[in-house]
Amino acid sequence: MSIEVRIPTILRPQTKGEKLVTGEGETIGELFTDLDSRYTGLRARVVTDEGALHRFVNVYINDEDVRFIGGLEAKLADGDSVTILPAVAGGM
Amino acid sequence: MARFDDITATTGGTPLVGLPRLSPAPGVRLWAKLEGANPTGSVKDRVAAKMIEAAERDGLLHPGATILEPTSGNTGIAVAMIARRKGYKLVAVMPENTSLERRQLLGAFGAEIVFSPAAGGSNAAVAKARAMAAERPDWVMLNQYANPANAAAHYEGTGPELLADLPEITHFVAGLGTTATLMGVGRYLREHAPGVQIVAAEPRYGELVYGLRNLDEGFVPELYDEAVLDRRLSVGTEDALRRTREVLSEEGLFVGLSTGAVLHAGLSLAREAAKAGREADIALLVADGGWKYLSTGAYSDVLDDAVDALDGQVWA
User: Fold this and answer.
1) Maximum Cα interatomic distance, chain B, rounded to a whole number of Å
2) Measured between alpha carbons, how far is B155 from B286 in angstroms, rounded to an integer?
3) Domain extent listing, chain B
4) Which NCBIfam families does its entry note (chain B) (predicted)?
5) In whole numbers, what is the pLDDT of chain B averaged over residues?
6) What pLDDT shows up at residue B181?
């Protein structure tokens, strides 16, 4: 099962400049472990030592924020697309 | 009663209108709360009034005082109107990548605008305002991202209005900016409408807006408590724009781009309910009308061109 992952500018030093990478995994946690085997250090930028998502990073499966669908345990399905974004101030 | 002592007294009490043409199934109803009906044309009139009242009550604001606020537009415009009436000065710190009309309106209401760099979007505006506040301790920063009066405006106003007009509410959807609308309305509805789903529609901007130098520059508003939300859906520029046009052509509702994002999220909830054979009454918060976005080409250009033009902007 191959999952497309969109990488924000700020994390591209960890992906050799790649904007779009692919990885494997049944869950978001597994996906980051798999990605880290090829893009060393990527996981540590997104996941804390305590195994939670970094406070200033948001991860989405398609359009759903994974924090509301199980966090690192959130399930992936074939054809899903994952997006990582830094948490920024919203408008207004 | 349609007679008021002055313009500020018209804040709140906004209409809730049905969107029957967008409903995917007979038992699934969509409702739009039209915050563009507030005095300066956005939901932020509620917030500006409450934050200024609170600052006056706390003795922070005196006649002639200067208010400093980071804003992508609506809050600044709402604060500027009240500030002008009450004799305060407003310095608005705004990303340079916001629409022309917002700058014009701020200017018209007498605010001074200080621009922050496009890269980093509102993050850069918040950082700049904080730096300016540190240098000018006599200025009053209302700090909408952290000010409890912001969420209180919705807990005390928007939420009760919504429930009074739609006691059968099953879902509430609003845009996620300062997070105060979702926090205030969300908490009120959780207390008074058991089982209601609180859903955030978060704008997904172009890359420029996420252009931080390092992750520690990231920002989560102090007001945000994820426990109030059931789901958080991210909506890209193209989907938001497409829905903004759809509600205009189908329902005759002329709304700003954040509403396009809210509608996109609301329609996916509506389809889920229809598919599951459930009834639903989905309330959507329409933060503002489309007036301030006309110059972006959002309503007139070829869709792809309009998406490109909006991509690097803080459009909600």
Assistant:
1) 59
2) 17
3) 7-37+158-311, 44-141
4) cysKM (TIGR01136)
5) 95
6) 98
Nearest CA in chain A to B47: A92
Residue of B42, B116, B258, B292 marked active site: B258
**Minimal Cα–Cα distance from A65 to chain B, Å?**
5
Q: Is B181 annotated as a binding residue?
A: yes
Give yes or no: B128 in active site: no
pLDDT tens digits, B187-237: 999 999 999 999 999 999 988 888 888 888 899 999 999 999 999 999 999
Q: Alpha helices of chain B — where are they, by DSSP H? A: 44-57, 74-86, 100-108, 121-135, 148-153, 159-165, 180-192, 237-251, 257-275, 303-311
Structure-token match 């005082």, residue found: B65
Is residue B1 predicted with pLDDT exceeding 90? Answer: no
Chain B residues 15-74 with a CB less than 8 Å from chain A: 44, 70-74
Tokens (6 digits) for B72: 């992508």
Cα–Cα distances in Å, from B271 out to B28, B138, B265? 8, 52, 10
Average pLDDT (A47-69) is 96
pTM for this entry: 0.96
pLDDT at A92 over 70: no
B44 included as an active-site residue: yes
**Percentage of residues in chain A having pLDDT higher than 70:** 98
Distance to chain A for B261, nearest Cα, Å: 12
Contact across the interface for B221 and A90, Cβ inside 8 Å? yes
Please give the ipTM for the structure prediction. Answer: 0.95
In A42-90, DSSP assigns E strands to 57-61, 64-65, 81-86
pLDDT tens digits along A2-42: 999 999 999 999 999 999 999 999 999 999 999 999 999 99
Residue to test with chain A: of B178, B215, B226, B262, most A Cβ within 10 A: B215
B31 secondary structure, DSSP code = E
Give the Cα separation of B78 and B165 in Å (integer).
25
Domains of chain A listed by start with CATH number: 3-86 (3.10.20.30)
| CATH code linked to domain B7-37+158-311 | 3.40.50.1100
> H/E element holding A34?
helix A28-38
